[in-house]
Amino acid sequence: MTHYKAKIIITVISAISVLICGMILTWYQVISLEQRRSMQTAYKTLNSVETLLDEAKNTADQASVLLSEPCSMQVRTKLERIVISARHIRLIAFYKGRKIYCSSFSDMDAINKSYAGFINSSLAIVKNNTVSPGIDAIVLQTQYPQGIIVTSLSTAWISEIMHFFNAQHHMDLLIDNDIKSSGASLLETGYVIIKSKKYPIAVSFYSAFNIFSYKFITDGWVSLLLSAILSIIVGVLLWRYILHSPSLYENLSKAIDRGEIIPWYQPIVHSNSYGTYGVEVLARWISPSGEVISPENFIPLAEQSGLIIPLTKKLMAQVGKELPEKLEGQLQPFHVGFNFITAHLQEPEFLDECRAFIKKFPPGTIRLTAEILEREPFERVSQLKETLRQLQENHIDIALDDFGTGHSNLNYLSALPIDIIKIDKLFINGLSPDSGSQKIIDYVIEMAKTLNIKVVVEGVETQFQVEYLKKKRVDYFQGYYFSKPVPINKLTLR
């Protein structure tokens, strides 16, 4: 298996793993939601049944004042009126010594025959072919000091309640003996039983960890969608991190070895005569197809990976081969600037590399300039200061590149031996007849003059910028107004 295929497999497996984990979490989430809904429905069902039984209990309380009176026609009439006034109650019966002696229904023998077997239960469901033929009755027994009152209501009302709530979640109603006889077995098979605190009734529902697929989709679609999106994001990030970045690193390393990174030159001109003072050497990646790859696409990676040091060494070697011929007949020392990271400057052999580069030119024809720029704050400033002094002693100028951005700040002007500051184009871009950004530029230029430091202004692109900066007596210009970076065969010296 190739390294490339292994990375693809890792990426795919990681993305699928994220998706599976998301589906499992969604399953638990839907199960929990379903259980909460079932619990809420169970309590609502129980409360509704309790409300019916409350009515039966209240009806018994109303009739209890008649327990002490004989079962006369007047008492039975009053019982009938109480039944009529109660919405769900079908009959009221009085018992003493477990025997019926008065009722709102005229045929007490029929009632006694139907209810006699349940007189020992506080709540029961009985066949009631006398009062409501074909419809069972729920009988609530209420004890009083003078006797027992039995109130009866049709199970049709309970059926309506159960039908309404079963449309949401299936529920079963357990009454008195049902709770005792089947409660334990129901619990063992995954049922939840919610008992009433007021009456011997309970509601049960199935609570095992299984749900229908449509519930999984309809209740968990948001979580499933987020899981899918997250798995795609993880896959893309892993793909880019595992495959793309190392591939670019390998390509860049090979490009350096094959000489595809070549030097281009951007002229730096005198501010008074516009004659060429020197050049800054810039890296360009020329792919095998002839495409010019911008340094923005590979320099950050080179700096992060450490490839910037071998890249810079390659550039110095190439410049040492092609630039001397271009400088034949040059009267004054020609400024040649390279960008160096501080890690390169502090390598033991760096000074020897600079000396070897200078020896490739006729004596006195060039002035090597080390342009330093740190993406992070300089470390071991005292050691760096000593290194820079050694370079100056060997006639190598020190320039602080892109001054005013990153970590190239005022502290380094006082802490390090600097010969030149290069003002970043960021400050020059806003310099126009209608802008008010001149004060910052003026301050930097004046400060450099006070410290006896030369000033190179980068990014000069307009006539106004040239004229304004010339009045401020800057030393040198660099920018598209004079020349873009060009390969050696297009470099023109004034």
UniProtKB/TrEMBL annotation:
Its main location: membrane. It is a multi-pass membrane protein. One of its GO terms (cellular component) is plasma membrane. Gene3D superfamilies: EAL domain (3.20.20.450). One of its GO terms (molecular function) is cyclic-guanylate-specific phosphodiesterase activity. Its EC number is 3.1.4.52. The chain crosses the membrane at residues 6-28, 223-243. This is cyclic-guanylate-specific phosphodiesterase. It comes from the Bacteria. SUPFAM superfamilies: EAL domain-like. Pfam families: CSS-motif, EAL. It comes from Enterobacillus tribolii. The keyword Membrane applies. Signal peptide: none annotated. Residues 245-494 form the EAL domain.
